[in-house]
Design a protein that fits this description.
The protein is mostly helical and about 300 residues long. It has one domain (about 5-299). It has 13 helices and no strands. The protein has helices at about 5-25, 25-35, 40-55, 65-95, 95-105, 105-120, 125-145, 155-175, 185-205, 220-245, 250, 255-270, 275-299. Helix 3 (about 40-55) runs antiparallel to helix 9 (about 185-205) and helix 6 (about 105-120) packs across helix 8 (about 155-175). The protein is globular.
Length: about 300
């Protein structure tokens, strides 16, 4: 591999790493906001702030798009973002958070399957699947952390499977969009616009209230700004950039690191104890991530 190729890979791995570091800590802000906000309100405000931030940062209009391209943008925003979040949050109502954590972490596997169907250049090898198996064992240990009874809740678990499939589809669509030649900032902005548009039905049928006076509470304000500017605008921009450079399959592997970041940040900020089970799970999840990279690096 040439130095130029190595530099290009670094440019992709770095944003993917930063994005999962951010996303792994979002639960802190979300828990804070859930005391006064409905999930639909949190999602709407964070992506609205994200869209405004991206527009102010890069105000250049996206010109000359075709209907086919707009369809892909709508798919990425409406299905890959809005419907994904709706399914994930609804799944948490009907099944255990540990179940959702493990099932959603299977998104790289679904990404690999879809890539074989729609992205002929991204066919993972045997090490990808070995890494997936090891990472899922690790994430299971992190999620259940000593709980020996697995509670299956078909409705919620199926919703979590749906969310994992949607995230996989989002990555595939993003890779297709990257071939259009638009900047990652413009792509992220356009997908956010569609995501907000598709949120309207959920907002209309939920307990949504504008109630912006709640943001006079500094904790609420800092939490929504972190979700809007950090997790949404910056986090999705970096993830989209990584998909553009590394491809859908290789970038999706970084999902394995999110539970690891959550465990570590819980210990740092919430004084939660890291047990030997969660520590073992962390090691396995990271090992799975690195093993999954091998076939793609050796081609």
């Amino acid at each position: 591999m040439s130095n130029v190729e190595k530099t290009q890979l670094l440019k992709g791995h770095l944003p993917a790493t930063i994005s999962v570091l951010i996303w792994g800590t979002t639960f802190i802000a979300t828990v804070t906001l859930l005391q006064e906000f409905h999930p639909s309100e949190i999602m709407f405000y964070r992506f609205l702030i994200g869209l405004l931030a991206l527009t102010l940062t890069y105000p250049h209009r996206m010109k000359g798009t075709t209907l086919k391209q707009e369809f892909y943008f709508a798919m990425a925003g409406g299905v890959g973002i809005t419907l994904y979040f709706v399914l994930e949050k609804t799944a948490l109502i009907h099944t255990a958070a540990s179940n959702v954590g493990v099932i959603v972490a299977a998104a790289p596997f679904f990404t690999a399957i879809l890539a074989c169907l729609f992205l002929k250049a991204e066919k993972p090898g045997k090490f990808f699947y070995l890494g997936f198996f090891i990472a899922i064992i690790g994430i299971t240990l992190i999620s259940f952390n000593g709980v020996t009874v697995l509670n299956l809740n078909p409705l919620g678990d199926l919703m979590a499977v749906g969310a994992a499939l949607l995230w996989a589809g989002y990555n595939i669509v993003l890779k297709k969009i990257s071939e259009f030649g638009y900047s990652t900032m413009q792509v992220t902005r356009r997908t956010f616009a569609y995501a907000l548009l598709f949120m309207i039905p959920w907002i209309l049928f939920s307990d949504f209230e504008f109630g912006i006076a709640r943001f006079t509470n500094t904790s609420n304000l800092f939490a929504i700004l972190f979700l809007g500017l950090g997790a949404s605008a910056f986090g999705f921009f970096l993830w989209n950039l990584a998909v553009k450079i590394l491809g859908a399959v290789r970038t999706s592997i970084y999902v394995y690191a999110i539970p690891v970041v959550t465990v570590i940040s819980s210990a740092l900020f919430l004084n939660e104890r890291i047990t030997w089970i969660s520590a073992t799970g962390t090691i396995l999840a990271l090992a799975g991530l690195f093993i999954s990279e091998r076939p793609l690096q050796s081609r």
